[in-house]
Amino acid sequence: MSEQQTSPNPAVDSPKTTAGRRRGFSALSGGTARNLGLVAALLLLCLVGFLTGGERFASLSNLMIVLSLASVIGVMAVGMTFVITTGGIDLSVGSVLGLTTVWATTLATQNLADQYGWIVMVTCALLVGLAAGLVNGVIIAYGNVVAFIATLAMLVAARGLAELIANRRTQLVQSSSFEGTFEGNLLGVPKIVWIFVFVVVAGWFLLTRTTFGRRTVAVGGNPEAARLAGIKVKRHLMYVYGLSGLTVGIAGVMMLARTGAGSSTNGLLYELDVIAAVVVGGTLLAGGRGTIVGTVIGVLIFATLSNVFIINNLDSSVQQIAKGAIIVGAVLLQQRISAPRST
Amino acid sequence: MVTEDPPALLLQMQGIVKTFPGARALDGVDLDVRPGEVHCLLGQNGAGKSTLIKVLAGAHQPTEGTILMDGEKIEIPHPVAALEHGVATMYQELDVVDGLTVAENIYLGHELANVGVTQRREVANRTRQLMERLGHPEISPHREVGTLSAAGKQVVSMARALSRDARVIVMDEPSAVLDSGEVDNLFRVVEELVAQGIAIIYISHRLEEIRRIGDRITVIKDGRTVGRNLDVASTSTDELIRLMTGKDVEYSFPERPGVPADAAVRLQVEDLSLAGVFSDVSLTVRAGEIVGLAGLVGSGRSEILETVYGARRATGGTVRLDGRRLHNGSVPTAVGAGIGLAPEERKSQGLVLDEPVYRNITLSSFARTARGGWLDERAEKKAAQEQATALDLRPADVERSIRTLSGGNQQKAMLARWLVHGCEVLLLDEPTRGVDVGARSEIYALVRRLADAGTAVVVVSSEIPEVLGLADRVLVISEGQVVHSGPAESIDEHQVLDMVMEGSAA
Ligand SMILES: Nc1ncnc2c1ncn2[C@@H]1O[C@H](COP(=O)(O)OP(=O)(O)OP(=O)(O)O)[C@@H](O)[C@H]1O
Ligand SMILES: [Mg+2]
Fold first, then answer.
1. Ligand 1 pocket by C-beta < 6 Å: which residues?
2. Pairing relationship of beta strands B456-460 and B425-429 according to DSSP bridges
3. CA geometry: angle at B178 spanning B176 and B182, to 5°?
4. Which residues of chain B neighbour A4 with C-beta distances below 8 Å?
5. Of A32, A68, B378, B451, which has the most beta carbons under 10 Å away?
């Protein structure tokens, strides 16, 4: 409509939206405000957990349970944050996760792992994830296929391939070197939580401190402007989907460490949790703005939520309803405090 | 058009104040508009013109101040209320929906419907009439707006304002995307409207336009009215510029030092063609030379620049930089070789609106200041700040979101991008669109300084005097063909117009 406002809402200039415009004025302060809101929501959840579960909720061991629960989704959510920041989506993460766990536990891979150690299984998972991501990226960037469709196709295909390889059987992890390396704790914290922490820190640096991150935001904010400024938009998109696939590979390794088995049903419907966490965290589905910190808080909110429900032996259907309410609530809240976007 | 006995005021805005977080855009503006007049609003970039008209349009709520219509106080809490009070607005930045047809755009928000069913035929007929009135019968009501040029979109936006039966029509820099023929059309329509007693609030940085159609002028500076109801005929240009800028600025083109005949050829374009748009365009630009492309909107000038830049894939011909042939259709190659383009539509093609000013300025160069992939934001801000100061960007705070800058200042940020990047060949598409008088001469001087430092510059502008004044050599383009090429001194505006018209008549 005009330089700074386009909004279907006629009351364009309510005080709330003007407050939101501040965001660009100082990107950090607006982002911090949003994250504070999320932290408040998380604390509120913890309070509910403490009031209803008492010691069973507020214990170190339960904290570790929540964190390991959050880890697998969390690692994939870091990759997804990049994808969504470009204005895209990756629906295939859940089924590619299943595929990586299956491929990394086939007889052939595990035999090799007996000879050369856990590195074989890890490399296998990472390569499978990366390859699936790059295929998504090539189809989306160079084939000009809408991300939703391309990754939906990958979702179906990867699940099918996983079933084919595993023959619908569960494949137990037999490599003792893998178990020794990834299962159990380090300094009292589960190893997979350490991996999560590492991926988050790396993802944060990548998004906020590197040229890769800057390109990601620019491509999502205005692809045409990015192209005319000399950024290789297509190649960058391919990398971003590749990155998402890579995080899925990492999550696959973590999944094997947690459950001790590869199965084609691993990661079923995870894509929904991952996307929900990213969006609730404050990354714009339309692209152009992404936040790793927000994503992490989003992941923790959902993990805490299911923990609170489990501790109280509540019906998981009720939990689904609560999840739905949180997603809608968070997105509504964000629209209030974020700058109206132009079309 | 001003009668002896001035009619009662139609619209009054009194003491309008508008604050944004961190900025006081309007600080007490008054505006009186009579029925049947063309009231011009003048002011430098960032003076607050667009903000004022957005207050009038109901897009912004004033912090203080009153608005009177026919002497009665009115509230305009949202855009629909403005339309109900008879105020229609054409915004500075194009506000059409690309995915809808021309007719759908024009009747967006006030669809002609019969119990919810849109009356397609009626809408199409009325749209056709509007288009005819605006001198564009060739634009079909069913055409998708995204396929129109910037000027075409402006016409649609104009038609939308006309379709509203307004008493006051606000036009925020409507002529910026129009060429002289289309400006004539616009003015004809304006005169018709004024004769019907409709008031026009007209914003433009082109003083000669204001001389042509304006009745009275209000000048705004830093959010305050500094010149009220000045009579167009009796106020001198110097006086207006002094009011706007607060100082005496010379509005002139820089000297041409002349390009030595032995200067190296930087850019060499041979027989470049883009099927259906232009064909066999050849041009050479030497180091230190400014070449201007004159022609009508839609003659293919922007497309030529974009093809040279690699943003479009040529269907024939070659582009060489310093003798080396560039890969066809690759922007990164062009940028890497040292070509820069400031595109025509800064909002859709140039800016990442939600990002701060400095990141927009360094969008082409952040990878260079980075070390091994790690950004050096401090260096980026410093480089951006230097150019912002040099171009007198207002406000000079580079950490603000670029969305909050006024139109002209966004344009300056686009130029700053290539100054920070540093170019051997600079392609400028409408470099002064929306830029105020003072800043214009600064930009002219800047372009000349770049040329003197050895940059080869190609300028496209719809303002023929600008091309003739700034360039060393001029190419006249008509219907995708070069119809004339020669030194700028040896040709005048009328000759250019004749060539352009002849070409398009043929
Ligand atoms: N949403 C906003 N938030 C903060 N500042 C704003 C916002 N919108 C406008 N401003 C500031 O208000 C001032 C007036 O802007 P405005 O767009 O009205 O200028 P203008 O006179 O129309 O200039 P131009 O000729 O360049 O179009 C500028 O300093 C601008 O940066
Ligand atoms: Mg303006």
1. A 4, 21; B 20, 23, 25, 43, 45-51, 92, 395, 404-409, 434, 436
2. parallel
3. 140
4. 403-404
5. B451
Residues of A with a Cβ under 8 Å from any B Cβ are 1-6, 10-13, 18-19, 21-27, 209-214, 217-218, 221-222, 224-232, 288-289, 339, 341-343
CATH no. for A33-338: 1.10.3470
pLDDT band (50, 70, 90) for residue A27: very low
Please state which of the four CATH numbers 1.20.120.1630, 3.30.450.40, 3.40.50.300, 2.70.70.10 is assigned to the domain occupying B11-245.
3.40.50.300
- Report the candidate in B454, B464, B458, B469 with the shortest Cα–Cα distance to residue B493: B464
Q: What confidence score (pLDDT) does residue A2 get?
A: 39
**Is a pLDDT exceeding 80 seen at residue A276?**
yes
Q: Calculate helix-pair angle for A191-209, A211-221, nearest 10 degrees.
A: 70
Chain A residue with CA closest to B350: the answer is A225
Q: Could you tell me which residues are beta bridge partners of residue B319?
A: B269
**Do the chains contact at B352 and A24, CB–CB below 8 Å?**
no
A86 DSSP 8-state letter: T
pLDDT value of residue B2: 47
Radius of gyration of chain A measured on its C-alpha atoms: 21
Q: Is the pLDDT of residue A336 over 80?
A: no
Q: Which stretches in chain B have pLDDT values below 50? A: 1-3, 506
Distance between CA B6 and CA B90 in Å, rounded? 27
H helix runs in B13-62, sequence order: 49-56
Cα angle value B19/B21/B26 (rounded, 5°): 20
Which chain A residues touch B373 with a CB distance below 8 Å?
Answer: 210-212
By the 8 A CB rule, do B486 and B467 touch?
Answer: no
Distance of CA B247 to the CA centre of its chain: 25
pLDDT tens track for A114-161: 888 888 899 999 999 999 999 999 999 999 999 999 999 999 999 999
Strand order in the sheet with B481-487: B339-342, B425-429, B456-460, B290-295, B473-478, B481-487
What are A151-202's pLDDT values in tens digits? 999 999 999 999 999 988 888 888 888 888 888 888 888 999 999 999 999 9
Q: Is the peptide bond before B395 cis (omega within 30 degrees of 0)?
A: yes
8 Å CB contact between A267 and A94? yes
Ligand 1 centroid to B363 CA: how many Å?
Answer: 22
Ligand 1 pocket check: which of B40, B44, B50, B55 to mutate, most ligand atoms within 8 Å of Cβ? B50
pLDDT of residue B281: 92
Phi, psi of B31 (to 5 degrees): -150, 125
Which class in CATH covers the domain with range B264-338+426-436+455-506? alpha beta
Q: Is A287 within 8 Å of A85 (Cβ atoms)? A: yes
Say whether B86 sits in a helix, a strand or coil. Answer: coil
Boundaries of every domain in chain A: 33-338
What chain B residue is nearest to A12 in terms of C-alpha separation? Answer: B59
- Give span(s): CATH 3.40.50.300, chain B: 11-245, 264-338+426-436+455-506
Let me know if B469 is exposed, middle or buried by CB neighbors in 10 A (0-12, 13-18, 19+).
Answer: middle
Q: Which B residues, 6 through 65, put their C-beta within 8 Å of a C-beta on chain A?
A: 20-22, 50, 54, 58-61
**Looking at beta carbons, which pairs linking B188-196 to residues 24 or more positions away fall under 8 Å?**
B188/B135, B189/B133, B189/B134, B189/B158, B189/B162, B190/B38, B192/B133, B193/B162, B193/B169, B194/B1, B194/B36, B194/B37, B194/B38, B195/B36, B196/B36
Contacts of B331 in chain A (CB under 8 A): 227-228, 230
Ligand 1 atom with the shortest distance to the CA of B51 = 18
For residue range B415-443, list pLDDT tens digits in order.
899 889 888 899 999 888 888 877 788 88
Backbone angles phi, psi at A261, to 5 degrees: -155, 145
